[in-house]
Specification:
The protein has six helices and no strands. With 117 residues, the protein is mostly helical. The longest helix is centred in the C-terminal third of the chain and has 29 residues, at 83-111.
């Protein structure tokens, strides 16, 4: 799914062999969110030199995003494999949210003079 989304990012029709401005490319903007400084400089140079297709840039973005989210993906898979544990986590989270909401609502009422904190 992620690959399909990344590969569907709209880009201009600059030919592969033509130099491109990485600062005017949304694929490059997203790439910078995941890449280290060296990777950013390397891809920027490839954009400016020409010979880089947007498909190549999208593939680089996809690979980095997969690395970045690998741990989260594994956690999600583990939770999906254990529905009982997932339900426990959701119930506990809902209880914490109710407690916090009651606390905040109490302070809001007190601030408005509608009740004690």
């Amino acid at each position: 799914r992620a690959r399909k989304k990344i590969m569907s990012i709209k880009t201009d029709s600059t030919p592969v062999e033509a130099p491109k401005d990485p600062d005017a490319c949304s694929v490059f903007d997203l790439f910078k969110l995941f890449a280290n400084e060296q990777e950013v400089e390397e891809l920027s140079g490839r954009y400016r030199a020409g010979g880089l297709g947007y498909g190549d840039a999208k593939q680089a973005l996809f690979e980095l995003s997969q690395e970045h989210f690998a741990e989260a993906r594994l956690r999600r898979e583990a939770l999906e494999a254990d529905p009982g544990r997932l339900e426990e986590i959701l119930v506990a989270g809902a209880e914490r949210a109710r407690q916090k909401a009651a606390e905040v609502l109490g302070r809001a009422k007190a601030a408005c003079g509608l009740g004690a904190a």
